[in-house]
Design a protein that fits this description.
It is a single chain. This protein is mainly α and about 350 residues long. The chain has 16 helices and seven strands. The strands form three sheets. Strands 1-7-6 form a three-stranded mixed β-sheet. It is globular and about 55 Å long.
Length: about 350
């Protein structure tokens, strides 16, 4: 149910200007804004080419900005490729679609209609002009992607509550200019209760798929930002993983075609899965709370509490960070606050790596 970034968003970013150097006035402005907004400002001030080098580095002591590898931001002024009429295909589907068809926000590309029950109208087409098809971003089977989230198998009551939190402003984001949550907040003002209930019933009835492969490593492929998520440059170059999780589609074109069967690889620091498992099981001597208490012994959810097993680690990091910094403050956030308030970024990475490695 996340809407596309509008062309006006890019124009707005460009209107703010870019500069190659940080002049005194720019430095003053940077220091005057709150930490969660600073990474977006750096992208505009320095240009996106300067950011990948920063992504691999461990922040200086006391630094507290949203990690850019989890909050991927499309470069200012990015221009979508034109549709040349070429038909696109995905594995194991007889269907063919043009680029225009797969990026039409009021269509949920359905490459494998036999994989799921009939979709409600709000999932298939949304409602013009304010509400886009839920399946456009979250895919026909609710598998989602690193830029947003998976919905398959989430409790219907949880989905309904999140939409209410978006609508009320209780659920926001640490990076307000990032398109997926920004547009989610915008469309929540127009979607009806009946449409939300229909979408929630559909997605909650789907069985979650294991589409993420977690790989522990010290070196990762070099990446670029594509559609608000990271993508492998596929040039053979590698770099140290540092204090990051690098989550990329295995087949970028398949994911761009919005195929629910697309898979992902999440590269995580060596040892992080075991560290996360121990932290989730014990609470780390008071650093956090045992995850199973709320999310169930297998982390697949418990009653109205959502499962976190097998979910995008990029998404998990964003939620832990947003809750810790008070920008996600819905009805269940007070229960999570003691869980996240003492977590370091290393702790968050470990927990996300472990949870993502589990079967959903």
């Amino acid at each position: 149910m996340v809407s596309r970034v509008a062309a006006g968003d890019c124009a707005d970013l460009l209107s703010k200007g870019r500069t190659a150097t940080l002049e005194p006035l720019v430095i003053h402005r940077f220091l005057s804004i709150t930490a969660p907004h600073r990474i977006g400002f750096l992208v505009l001030a320095l240009g996106w080419a300067s950011i990948p080098a920063l992504m691999a580095e461990t922040p200086a002591p006391g630094a507290d900005i949203p990690p850019p590898w989890a909050y991927a931001v499309d470069p200012p002024g990015v221009v979508a490729p034109k549709d040349d009429g070429t038909l696109r295909h995905v594995p194991d589907s007889p269907l063919a679609m043009t680029l225009s068809q797969v990026r039409d926000g009021n269509v949920s590309p359905d490459w494998h209609p036999g994989d799921h029950p009939a979709m409600p109208e709000i999932v298939v087409h949304g409602r013009k002009p304010q509400v886009m098809a839920c399946g456009y971003c979250h895919r026909a089977e609710g598998t989602g992607g690193p830029e947003n989230t998976s919905l398959a198998g989430l409790p219907a009551a949880y989905i309904i509550q999140q939409m209410a939190d978006f609508k009320s402003g209780a659920r926001s984001t640490s990076l307000p200019d990032r398109a997926p949550p920004k547009n989610m907040i915008a469309l929540s003002k127009f979607v009806t209760a009946e449409e939300i209930e229909a979408a929630a019933a559909y997605f909650s009835a789907l069985k979650p798929k294991q589409v993420i492969r977690v790989v522990e490593t010290n070196m990762v492929p070099k990446t670029h930002v594509h559609g608000w998520h990271l993508a492998d440059l596929k040039n053979g170059e590698q770099e140290p993983i540092g204090q990051r999780i690098i989550e990329v589609p295995d087949d970028l074109e398949q994911f761009v075609s919005r195929d629910s069967r697309a898979h992902f690889t999440a590269y995580v620091p060596e040892g992080s899965v075991a560290k996360g498992k121990a932290l989730a099981a014990t609470g780390g001597e008071g650093r956090t709370v045992q995850c199973a208490i709320c999310h169930g012994p297998d982390l697949r959810g418990l009653g109205p509490i959502p499962g976190i097993a097998g979910r995008s680690p990029s998404y998990i990091i964003r939620q832990l960070y947003d809750i810790k910094h008070g920008v996600r403050a819905g009805i269940s956030s007070p229960l999570m606050k003691p869980t996240v308030e003492k977590l370091t970024m290393d702790d968050m990475i470990a927990l996300a790596a472990y949870a993502s490695s589990l079967t959903p």
